[in-house]
Amino acid sequence: MTRPVRIVTLCTGNAARSVMAGVMLEQLAEHEGAAVEIVTAGTHVVEGQPMGMRTKQALVAVGELDTAGLGRHRSHQLTDADCAWADVIVAMEADHVAYVRARHDAAGHKTSTIHRLARALPVSPEPFGDRVTALNLASTDLAADRDVLDPAGGDQEDYDRCAAEIFELCQVLIALVGVPPG
Fold it and tell me: Is 47 in contact with 76 (CB distance < 8 Å)?
């Protein structure tokens, strides 16, 4: 049996965007029968912090998610071990990709913004890792990437808009991950 696709979702504080994406990808994968494992992380984290109330409320507002286990999240700083483990690191903005390239250079080839992956990852019977490699991510121009704006400091509407955007992108990504043969 093929092992699950390993995904790290990455934002700045691992308190909103990467958490939302992690919850969404995990639940969408379960619903679609896609085998994935998810780790959420941040580039500048205070370790061990729970997700904020606005993030929780934004996940509830999506309406299609099981929000019962949201209290388990604790913030986590991206590590070399996370980078080695991941098949892909899904960043919420170009600055996060630049951070990985600068601090975890060996993972640059498998790090991209969520917008780029949703737009460029090919639909193919090829293994997921091969499709990510074919994108040549280590040398992509980050100036052309679109960011998921950070809702931090904003009101609940900002968090809700962010969650809606990420949910759309996560639905595309799970469809692109594919269902491994059983």
Answer: yes
Which two structure tokens, joined as six digits, stand for 86? 């991941």
**Tens digit of each residue's pLDDT (9 = 90 or more) over 108-150:** 999 999 999 999 999 888 889 899 999 999 999 999 899 999 9
The predicted model scores a pTM of 0.94
CA angle 16, 173, 141 (to 5 degrees): 80
Domains and CATH numbers, the chain: 5-177 (3.40.50.2300)
Reduced to 3 states (helix: H, G, I; strand: E, B; else coil), residue 175 is: helix
Please write the tens of the pLDDT for every residue from 74-111: 999 999 999 999 999 999 999 999 999 999 999 999 99
Contact 27, 170 (CB under 8 A): no
